[in-house]
Design brief:
The chain has 598 residues and is mainly alpha-helical. β1 and β2 form a beta hairpin. The protein contains 34 helices and 2 strands. It has a two-stranded antiparallel ribbon with strand order 1-2. The longest helix has 22 residues. It is 74% helix and 1% strand.
Length: 598
């Protein structure tokens, strides 16, 4: 009877009879999945003709209790496409905000584009999910269908923002300006994510033209427009872009602050928001991690970078995954682990979103131009600067990056005079753009090139320019990764500083010089004792790094997606190869030999 229904349900649960509670208060239950499958099978056999009606009833019941995902599932099962579209439109924002991108894509795949464009809001939201998941072809097809059937200026403004973002992403900078103007002319000035995207896409266009001041202005406007809590994802994207522009401009403290402030906010609020919120911190973890590695805090920096990378993997958001992967590759390069950096870059290359995104391609190739010469991959380096790039002002950023790659190849091949001429040309462009961060890298290359032909004074002048820009924040690794010629030049600068005073040398601090030289010594020691590949395999190194963190065998197995027995085998091999008595002894010896950071 109704009076004792709760008692009956509790009795069924105690006796483990087919039901499972869904909450601690025992208000909601579900059938055991095997029993539920049996009931559904019998229902399909006995009441086949009534199934659509029953699914419609179930959909209405779930809707009345605001369980819209279940309501959508049942309306789809009933074949009620009109009602399903309404449910999908009502639930897509919730799914997006909780990072359930795969669920959105699964539901979206059950409708045709013609059905989706009937609901403008749904169509625009679904476009962004397709875009962020890397399905550019489907995203483009959908948004042009909406463009062709819309006449409302406000709707067309949002459509133009979508198209503009596609144009920028694929490198069609000229067209992007047309759509930027169309969007900004008609967009409502109310603060919502369409205004944010209007500024974001325009900022991207300026960045690819290497107009850094304009790019910074619009990224900053977009970030300010996204300062409300519900727009934190968009604020994060814009602030990470702003951080990149600041770094390129040479404002290293400002670039770090953008990432650190966002990470502090995520950490302060993340505990209350759950995984859907937590994954948004992935890129900023990597940004902060890379800055720490730059300042030679390698262990802490890599931990943060790996944390960001792992968080990104909890979602299907291709932007988060691709950007975090690119930043982790840079982190490994900065830390001196070139093989690992190349491995992660290869992983990045396999992500479809990266291949369709010009900005990520440029960042990836900039890193490849640094790491390939250090790994004797000169053929791959040559392929970078031989890429087919349009030689016009719309692709200024690309031209600069690939010119740097060419200069690195020329230095590696011993074509020093050609490299010096090219680097001078690049430096003049960077000066004009006030891109002092990227100019710092070029100055270091100029120092290497002049040193190679024994023009030590010119080499020291260029290196001194770089060091004066980086000493205020203690950047170290950009010098360590540029080979021993730079170490010799730093020593000569130190000797000169001790002998004489002048306007150029006086601002450079002896403490900073010594810190760089100490890092060079430590790096040589670390490289000397790192085992060959046949001594410690990559998987054994992965296991060793987790041993350093104090993880148990079970925790290591979960991290590396391997069995406990496999972990035991790796640990046994590590102990044997390092001649260690136990795990702690292995960690100690690995640190002493520089296999892992001390």
């Amino acid at each position: 009877s109704i009076e004792n229904s709760q008692e009956l349900i509790e009795d069924l649960e105690r006796n483990n009879m087919f039901i499972i509670p869904l909450d601690n208060e025992r208000n909601w239950y579900r059938y055991h999945h095997l029993f539920a499958s049996l009931l559904q099978q019998r229902l399909a056999l006995k009441f086949k003709n009534k199934l659509p009606e029953l699914h419609n009833s179930a959909s209405q019941w779930y809707e009345s209790y605001d369980q819209l995902v279940f309501a959508l599932e049942h309306s789809l099962a009933a074949g009620n496409k009109e009602k399903s579209i309404d449910h999908f439109a009502n639930v897509i924002n919730h799914l997006w905000e909780t990072s359930q991108y795969l669920t959105i894509l699964q539901f979206g795949g059950m409708f045709t584009h013609e059905e989706i464009v009937q609901n403008v809001g749904l169509c625009l939201n679904y476009f962004w999910i397709l875009f962020q998941s890397g399905d550019m072809d489907q995203a483009e097809s959908l948004i042009y269908k909406l463009k062709n059937r819309s006449t409302d200026k406000a709707v067309l403004a949002m459509v133009h923002i979508c198209i503009n973002t596609l144009k920028i992403t694929t490198g069609d900078i000229e067209s992007s300006y047309t759509y930027s103007e169309l969007a900004i002319q008609n967009i409502n000035e109310d603060v919502d994510y369409w205004t944010i995207f209007a500024y974001l896409s325009l900022a991207e266009a300026h960045l690819l033209k290497f107009e850094l001041e304009e790019s910074f202005e619009y990224f900053s406007k977009a970030a300010r427009s996204a300062s409300k809590p519900q727009f934190i994802y968009f604020e994060m994207i814009n602030r990470t872009r702003t951080s990149f522009v600041l770094w390129t401009k040479g404002d290293f403290p400002g670039a770090y602050k953008e990432g650190k402030d966002m990470l502090d906010r995520f950490n302060a609020a993340g505990a209350d928001k759950g995984v859907g919120f937590d994954v948004l911190a992935s890129i900023v973890y990597c940004l902060v991690g890379n800055f720490l590695i730059h300042t030679n805090q390698i262990e802490e920096g890599l931990q943060k970078s790996l944390r960001g990378y792992e968080l990104s993997k909890k979602t299907t958001n291709a932007l988060l995954i691709s950007t975090s992967t690119a930043l982790l590759a840079e982190g490994y390069y900065l830390a001196g682990d070139y093989n690992k950096a190349i491995s992660i870059l290869e992983e990045l290359d396999a992500i479809p979103y990266k291949r369709a995104t010009i900005f990520l391609c440029i960042l990836s190739d900039l890193l490849k131009s640094k790491v390939y010469p250090l790994s004797n991959k000169l053929d791959q380096l040559k392929q970078l600067y031989e890429s087919d790039i349009k030689a016009d002002e719309n692709h200024a950023f690309e031209i600069i990056v690939y010119s740097i790659a060419k200069a690195r190849h020329q230095i590696a091949e011993g074509k020093i005079q050609e490299a010096i001429a090219l680097l001078q040309n690049i430096a003049e462009k960077l000066e004009l753009a006030k891109a002092y961060g990227l100019l710092t890298e070029v100055n270091i290359l100029q120092a290497r090139a002049h040193s190679a032909i024994l023009e030590q004074q010119q080499a020291m002048d260029y290196l001194l320019q770089a060091m004066l820009r980086t000493q205020s924040v203690g950047l170290i690794r950009m010098y360590i990764n540029e080979c021993e010629e730079i170490e010799d030049l730093v020593k000569e600068i130190k000797t000169l500083k001790r002998k004489q005073t002048n306007k150029s040398l006086d601002p450079l601090e002896l403490l900073y010089i010594n810190t760089i030289l100490q890092a060079f010594e430590k790096e040589k020691s670390r490289q000397k004792f790192v085992p060959d590949e046949d001594e410690l395999s990559s998987r054994e190194l992965d296991t060793l790094n987790l041993l350093v963190l104090g993880l148990s065998n079970q925790e290591i197995a979960a991290k590396l997606f391997i069995s406990n027995n496999t972990v035991k085998t790796h640990v046994r091999n590590i102990l044997f190869k390092l001649e260690a008595n136990n795990r702690n002894d292995a960690v100690l010896k690995a640190k002493e030999k520089g296999i892992v950071p001390a």
